[in-house]
Structure formats: structure tokens, C-alpha cells
Fold:
Amino acid sequence: MTAVVVLCVAFLAVAALLLVVRISLGPTMLDRVVALDVLVAVVICGLALEAAVRRHTTTLPILGVLSLLGFVGSVSVARFTPGSDDVEVEQS
Amino acid sequence: MTWSSAADLAAAACLILGALLALIAAVGILRFPDVLTRMHSATKPQVLGLLLVLLGLGLRLRDARAIGMLALVALFQLVTSPIASHMVGRASFRAGQVRRDLLVVDELSEVLPRPEQPRQP
Structure:
């Protein structure tokens, strides 16, 4: 089990690092939002891995909250991207 | 080999596969050239990787209430992820942040009521 844990943590850590690089580089805001959504998924995977290793159910509600939180963030950023919709046309 | 050790083995395989999918998707998000291609890569850990990891956690916990909560998490992710992807793709196309030279078929630009000037980021 230790080898499995080390392997999974290494995968997830490298993935999170690459995603942070994309978030800091990302030419547009939508690139950052996509990468941030995947980063939330990686965090969920990490919490689930920790719960699986120690066999406890304490962090399960956090998984539910996180799976809804990434959705709200990406939808609100996509909604208010300039030029993405007819909102400005209707108001002007 | 007992049932519990077999379940632990299956859980380990699921966890490794899920983490590997997250890594592959992160490499894709870093290397792909465009918002749409990055979204293609982003759906892998959001759906399949997360489902594999949750399956591994359920196999490891083997508790009915915990598995119910995990099914709820998977359901939330499956319902919300397509909506978020749809909003992001729509916004990126309408804001002109899509690289049109990479598109093979572009039927949306013809039917958009108000064609926008492509805004280079």
C-alpha cells in the first residue's frame, strides 16, 4: 500500500504543479478557469486518496462541497468574460 | 486471497489509474495550444479520473453510507461539469479567443447573429 500511496501522491503533485504553471501563464482568463477547475478535481482526488489510505469518512462532505464549488467559479467567470455575450449590447 | 484483500487491490488499481489520468490531463492542459483543446484534456480527470478515485475510495471504505455520499459527489460532478464546459466554450468562442486556424469545421460563425472581430489575447 505504501508504494501505491507514494505513486499516487507523486502523480497528483506533478499534475498540480503543471496546472499551477498553466494558471500563471494562461493567456486568457478562460484558460485559467479551465486549469483551476482541473486543479479542484486534483484536490478532490487528493482528499479521497487520503481518506482511502486512513479509512476514515471525515472528509467526505468536503468532497461534495468542492465538486460544486469549481462549477460555480467557472460558470461565473465564463458568464462575465467581456465580449462573450449580448449583455453589453442590450444595456447600451 | 480473501474478499477484503481483493477489494483493497482493486481500490489501489483504481486510485493509481485516477491519479495517472490527472497527470495526463495536466500535461495536456500545459501543452495544448487553445482553450477548446485544453477543455478536451480537462474533462478526463473531472469525470473519469474522479470516478475512478471515488470507486477506489468506495472499495476501500466498504460502508453503505460512505458509498452513498461518494455517489452524491460523482452525481454532482457529472451534472455540473458539462454545464461549466458549455459555458466556457461558448464564452471563449464568442469572445474570439479560439484559434480559428486550428478549427476543421466551423459552422457556428456562419449562424452567429453578430459576427465579432476576433480579438487576439
Notes: Chain A touches chain B through 53 residues (CB under 8 Å). Chain A has one domain: 2-81. The CA atoms of residues 46 and 55 of chain A lie 14 Å apart. DSSP finds four helices and no strands in chain A.
